[in-house]
């Protein structure tokens, strides 16, 4: 089986090393040896250490490499939307099998890739696009195909999980924890895709598409990052027996007319310490799946890094190579359910709202009446000093935890609270998940 490798960065180099180190075992598992036909890179002559590959295999002509008749499988680890989309569509239409780790492309235009695969008759595998080495996507689209999945909740970004875990353990603020993550190599020089939730949102779209047999794109995912999470938020979570995680949540539901829908969102949330995801620390990933017959399942492991991601890539290479030798292809995209995606305003959850208010009689009653006007029921209230002097002209802190309410109702409540002269500021609004 002849392989074209697009990209030779951190992941690509690990793919090459594993192909070299495990060549005999891989050949035995597949029934034929794997050979690298070529490696497309942006620049020739770059120092790639002691990579066990002939320099003559490197080329800057990715499209020319893909079009070669002797290429059976195309492996893409370049990332980004273009030119990767054009390359992969060309490969799939030509009947070649494709293995990719490109979550951004799959979330942005997975439809085009699946249609090209159906047209050309090749396989499209992308286990490495979500949660690195964790075997997750194949269980969703194969092992659990006989079951009905109701909800998928996960920690799918190692950078944000490291930052929030550090804040929880040390009391550090976001900026300090991000600085530590950068120094240790967990955060990129530009961490925007991670800390603003773009990376997790792309993965949420892929998970929801597989779990609910529905085409879900990045634009369908409600996204919030972790940049507004403070040390005070983490302290409040700890006081409630919770921690804060950036969660991707995909769930079945019904709309007002009783039609089945899906909700897909990414945002920071408080979860109780007793929840299995609460103990997932450092840069690890974990995904919690709830299904009718299988019940609750959790997948856990390293969600990023060169070697873990390369492990998932090679698992897919073995699968597609076996299929090609047998003259078969994997099942095509399953989007038969075609469920509509509910807007975030209809999503139901609980909320933790922290207010800095004037410390005088009647304030709590006034605040409670705002919640009542928007049909948001209050579960608990905690009052404390906000640092100002006690009395009529001082400030106080109100921490309110609600019962389950629609997101739109909570947004309207917070909007009205911001306009009250007794409310100095709305210092924090966080969702509460997992039954805390």
UniProtKB/TrEMBL annotation:
It comes from Micromonospora zamorensis. It is an enzyme of class 1 (oxidoreductase). Belongs to the homoserine dehydrogenase family. The keyword NADP applies. Keywords: Amino-acid biosynthesis, Methionine biosynthesis, NADP, Oxidoreductase, Sodium, Threonine biosynthesis. Catalyzes the conversion of L-aspartate-beta-semialdehyde (L-Asa) to L-homoserine (L-Hse), the third step in the biosynthesis of threonine and methionine from aspartate. Pfam families: ACT (PF01842), Homoserine_dh (PF00742), NAD_binding_3 (PF03447). PROSITE patterns: ACT, HOMOSER_DHGENASE. Residues 352-431 form the ACT domain. The keyword Membrane does not apply. It catalyses: L-homoserine + NAD(+) = L-aspartate 4-semialdehyde + NADH + H(+); L-homoserine + NADP(+) = L-aspartate 4-semialdehyde + NADPH + H(+). Its EC number is 1.1.1.3. This is Homoserine dehydrogenase. Its cofactor is a metal cation. CDD domains: ACT_HSDH-Hom. It comes from the Bacteria. Pathway: Amino-acid biosynthesis; L-methionine biosynthesis via de novo pathway; L-homoserine from L-aspartate: step 3/3; Amino-acid biosynthesis; L-threonine biosynthesis; L-threonine from L-aspartate: step 3/5.
């Amino acid at each position: 089986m002849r392989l074209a490798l697009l990209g030779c960065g951190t992941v690509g180099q690990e793919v090459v090393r594993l192909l070299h180190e495990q060549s005999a075992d891989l050949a035995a598992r597949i029934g034929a040896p794997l050979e690298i036909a070529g490696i497309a890179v942006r620049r020739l002559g770059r120092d790639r250490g002691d990579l066990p590959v002939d320099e003559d295999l490197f080329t800057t002509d990715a499209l020319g490499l893909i079009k070669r008749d002797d290429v059976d499988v195309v492996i893409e680890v370049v990332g980004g939307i273009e030119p990767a989309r054009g390359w992969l569509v060309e490969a799939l239409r030509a009947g070649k099998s494709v293995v990719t780790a490109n979550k951004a492309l799959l979330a942005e235009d997975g439809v085009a890739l699946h249609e090209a695969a159906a047209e050309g008759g090749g396989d499209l595998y992308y286990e490495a696009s979500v949660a690195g080495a964790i075997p997750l996507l194949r269980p969703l689209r194969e092992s659990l195909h006989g079951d009905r999945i109701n909800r998928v909740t996960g920690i799918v970004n190692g950078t944000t999980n490291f930052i929030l875990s550090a804040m929880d353990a040390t009391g550090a603020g976001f900026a300090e924890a991000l600085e530590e993550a950068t120094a240790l190599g967990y955060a990129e020089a530009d961490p925007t895709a991670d800390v603003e939730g773009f990376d997790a949102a792309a993965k949420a779209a892929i998970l929801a598409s597989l779990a609910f047999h529905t085409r879900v794109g990045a634009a369908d995912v409600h996204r919030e990052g972790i940049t507004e999470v403070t040390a005070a938020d983490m302290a409040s979570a700890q006081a409630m027996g919770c921690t804060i995680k950036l969660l991707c949540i995909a769930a079945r539901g019904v709309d007002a007319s009783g039609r089945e829908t899906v909700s897909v969102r990414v945002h920071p949330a408080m979860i109780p310490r007793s929840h299995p995801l609460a103990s997932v620390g450092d840069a690890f990933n974990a995904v919690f799946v709830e299904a009718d017959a299988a019940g609750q399942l959790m997948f856990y492991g390293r969600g990023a890094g060169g070697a873990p991601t390369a492990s998932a890539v090679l698992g897919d290479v073995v699968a597609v190579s076996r299929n090609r030798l047998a003259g078969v292809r994997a099942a095509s995209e399953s989007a038969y359910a075609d469920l509509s995606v509910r807007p975030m305003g209809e999503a139901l959850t609980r909320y933790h709202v922290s207010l800095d208010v004037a410390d005088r009689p009647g304030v709590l009653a006034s605040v409670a009446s705002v919640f009542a006007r928007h049909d948001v029921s209050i579960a608990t209230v905690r009052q404390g000093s906000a640092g100002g002097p006690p009395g009529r002209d001082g400030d106080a802190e109100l921490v309110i935890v609600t019962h389950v309410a629609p997101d739109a109702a909570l947004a309207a409540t917070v909007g009205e609270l911001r306009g009250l002269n007794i409310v100095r500021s709305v210092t924090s609004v966080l969702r509460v998940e997992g039954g805390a």
